[in-house]
Amino acid sequence: MSDRRPPQPLPDHLWGDQWRFASLPAAELMAAFRDRPLPVLELPETRSPLNLGLAATLPIPGVIIDGGRRSLPLAFWLRDTQPVALKFIPGPLNGLILEAGDTDRWVLATFQDAEVTAAAQLFVERKYRSRGLHFLLVQPDNTGVTYSGFWLLQDHISSS
Predict the structure, then answer these.
(1) Is the model's pTM score more than 0.85?
(2) Beta-carbon neighbour count of residue 23 at 10 Å?
(3) Which CA distances in Å does 108 have to 31, 93, 121?
(4) pLDDT tens column, 88-146
(5) pLDDT tens digits for 72-104?
(6) Which residues of 123-155 are buried (b: 16+ CB within 10 A; e: fewer)?
(7) What phi and psi, each to the nearest 5 degrees, are found at residue 119?
(8) Separation of alpha carbons 160 and 127, rounded Å
(9) Is the separation of the CB atoms in 136 and 86 below 8 Å?
């Protein structure tokens, strides 16, 4: 993927209130979102954890964004951007990068906090164990009542 552009900052008018790493058991992932009335839902059966032969109890990692009032505009922007994968880039300033479309990359977050960095490393570990399967969830708040967008993503993990 050498033709990918350097990551660009996410447009300020889209960023939500907060974000966090999370996980859901493989057996619950599809059912948790399949029948919900979401404005944006990308949940291809070809990426179903059980169709991929993953253990039902395997934690599928993801990122949850509480978008507040920007939740719907962010979900629609993401839909148009066509998310492909989320990547943790370690460094002096750690980054969470959204790969989208054929060449676009966006900086979703930067952080130095040790606890967030540990969660990011667990995200990478879990992503490897789930054959690259992971999710992105956008919701107005953390009540779990409504969601704005859900994407089931799959990064191509090399075995080297």
Answers:
(1) yes
(2) 18
(3) 27, 13, 16
(4) 999 989 999 999 988 899 999 999 999 999 999 999 999 999 999 999 999 999 888 89
(5) 999 999 999 999 999 999 998 999 999 998 889
(6) bbebbebbbbbbbbbbbbeeeeeebbbbbbbbb
(7) -65, -35
(8) 15
(9) yes
